[in-house]
Design brief:
The chain has helices at 11-29, 45-52, 57-63, 101-108, 157-162, 164-170, 172-194, 235-243, 281-300, 323-331, 341-350, 361-372, 426-441, 452-460, 472-480, and strands spanning 66-77, 80-85, 88-93, 115-124, 130-141, 198-199, 205-206, 218-221, 226-230, 248-256, 268-277, 304-307, 310-313, 319-322, 381-384, 406-411, 414-421, 465-471. The chain contains 15 helices and 18 strands. It has 499 residues and is an alpha+beta fold. The protein has 2 domains: 11-151, Nucleic acid-binding proteins (OB fold (Dihydrolipoamide Acetyltransferase, E2P), Beta Barrel); 172-318 and 379-488, 2-Layer Sandwich (BirA Bifunctional Protein, domain 2), CATH 3.30.930.10.
């Protein structure tokens, strides 16, 4: 924290400053409306800098540009004050000798963090700095708490997440990340609309949670007197729309999964899901490569992206490996390892991997992949041919009934996308739902429910379709070089504070 002269202070000093500011506010209340709402800016700092910063002193003086500007005080030194509106700062020259008595007295009461409205003329200082010579100002909002030190910012990482509003005031990098997030989401929308996809919205509260193997949040609807679930994925509703005749749909919205907190996980997160009729999973692999290249080019101005010390060039084709081939490549497994469940268990034992002997071959295979392969995949890699056992909604491969036409995209050792050719055989889907129910009854809290209405929809006929989900938060982490998911969420979920 800082004193109003920007020196570091302790908590006792901070409390004194807060008390002093409250006294100032009390005095203001005795004179006038304390938080007025009658000031209307006619300009902002960003536009003023763009329009006038290139002019020299004489040209600016001749132009005689008068402005009304509003913003938060972030620096004060003598008659020079700097305000911030949005992400841009503007210098003010506030000479209280030229103010009337009342205005000069009000100037003495200003503190860092106060929000003011000013009127005056633009000019250039001797150092060629664009500045507003203030003729009149109004205190719009009295800040009761001092801002953090202007050089150190809000250095406590946890407090940055808990008090994002302060972090955004003082941390330019945080503002950059969230501005970048907005651009990425806008770019995604533009991309899918340009490819004739229609944006839709599906229910957040569902009677049956489906579309992903995840533990849901449970709530209760009083009027209907029934339990409902915050959705874990929009998949089954989006595919109902494909049944209904919308051949290309996408949704950008929130999912909720009752899981732990980590640098990669938040129980509430943003997901892009999209579905395309008459397409195969290989079509979506090609689309995904193009989407990542488009985002990089449009948002960063280059196809090369740096993340946590690694560099990725999205103009180059991504590697493609099956689950089995990736285990061969990174674990040195031979063909014999995959011949039977017993040979696979023996290989897992040799790697020191824990598993349940009751698991099927596919689940053991994925345990090996998760433990020994995923963390090796730094450069963009599509992993394909996932076991049917762990892919209850994906289409069975026509040449090998044990695998599905599914892929995941892994970049920087973490999954960013999951897609597959959709299962549109209602009898096969019903059988897989029943297998999921058996797993749930055996204690698997993440297994899926049996969704009779979705089976009914498939019985009306869903065309051959491919679909995909991309985690927006992890995507933003990648493009902003952010180490933690909390850095790209405005208000991440946090463990409660304890006294």
């Amino acid at each position: 924290m800082t004193k109003d002269n920007n020196d570091t202070i302790d908590l006792a000093d901070e409390n004194k400053l807060i008390a002093a500011r409250r006294e100032k506010l009390t005095a203001i209340r005795g004179k006038r409306v304390a938080f007025p709402n009658d000031f209307s800016p006619d300009a902002d700092s960003s536009n003023l800098i763009n329009d006038y910063d290139s002019l020299d002193k004489e040209a600016l003086e001749e132009a005689a540009v008068n402005v009304a500007l509003a913003g938060r005080i972030v620096r004060m030194r003598g008659p020079f004050t700097v305000i911030q509106d949005g992400a841009v700062q503007m210098q003010l020259y506030m000479n209280n000798k030229s103010f009337g008595e009342a205005l000069a007295e009000e100037f003495k009461g200003l503190d860092l963090g106060d929000i003011i409205g000013v009127r005056g003329e633009l000019f250039k200082t001797g150092k060629n700095e664009l500045t507003v010579r203030v003729a009149d100002f109004t205190l719009l909002t009295k800040s009761l708490r001092p801002l953090p030190d202007k050089f150190k910012g809000l250095t406590d990482t946890e407090m940055r997440y808990r008090q994002r509003y302060v972090d955004l005031i003082v941390n330019e990098d945080s503002r950059r990340i969230f501005a970048m997030r907005s651009k990425i989401v806008r770019c995604i929308r533009d991309y899918f609309e340009a490819h004739q996809f229609m944006e839709v919205e599906t229910p957040m509260m569902q009677v049956i949670p489906g579309g992903a193997t995840a533990r849901p949040f449970i709530t209760h609807h009083n009027a209907l007197d029934q339990d409902m679930y915050l959705r874990v994925a929009p998949e089954l509703y989006l595919k109902r729309l494909v049944v209904g005749g919308f051949d290309r749909v996408f949704e950008l919205n929130r999912n909720f999964r009752n899981e732990g907190l980590s640098t990669r996980h938040n129980p509430e997160f943003t997901m892009l899901e999209f579905y395309q009729a008459y397409a195969r999973y290989t079509d979506l692999i090609d689309l995904t490569e193009d989407l990542f290249k488009t985002i990089a080019q449009n948002v960063l101005g280059t196809t090369k992206v740096s993340y946590q010390g690694s560099e990725y060039d999205f103009s180059k084709p991504f590697e493609r490996l099956s689950v089995v081939d990736s285990i061969k490549k990174y674990c040195g497994a031979g063909d014999a390892v995959f011949e039977s469940k017993d040979s696979l268990m023996a290989f897992a034992d040799s790697l020191g991997i824990q598993y349940d002997k009751a698991w099927g071959k596919g689940k053991i295979l994925m345990e090996i992949f998760d433990e020994k392969v995923e963390h090796e995949l730094d450069q963009p890699t599509f992993i394909t041919e996932y076991p049917i056992e762990v892919s209850p909604l994906a289409r069975r491969n026509e040449n090998n009934p044990d695998i599905t036409d599914r892929f995941e995209l892994i970049i920087g050792r973490r999954e960013l996308a999951n897609g597959f050719s959709e299962l549109n055989d209602p009898e096969d889907q019903a059988e897989r739902f029943r297998a999921q129910v058996e797993q749930k009854e055996s204690g698997d809290n993440e297994a899926m429910h049996f969704d009779e209405d979705y089976i009914r929809a498939l019985e009306y006929g869903m065309p051959p379709t491919a679909g995909e989900g991309i985690g927006i938060d992890r995507l933003v982490m990648l493009f902003t070089d952010s180490a933690s998911i909390k850095d790209v969420l405005l208000f991440p979920h946090m463990r409660p504070l304890h006294d």
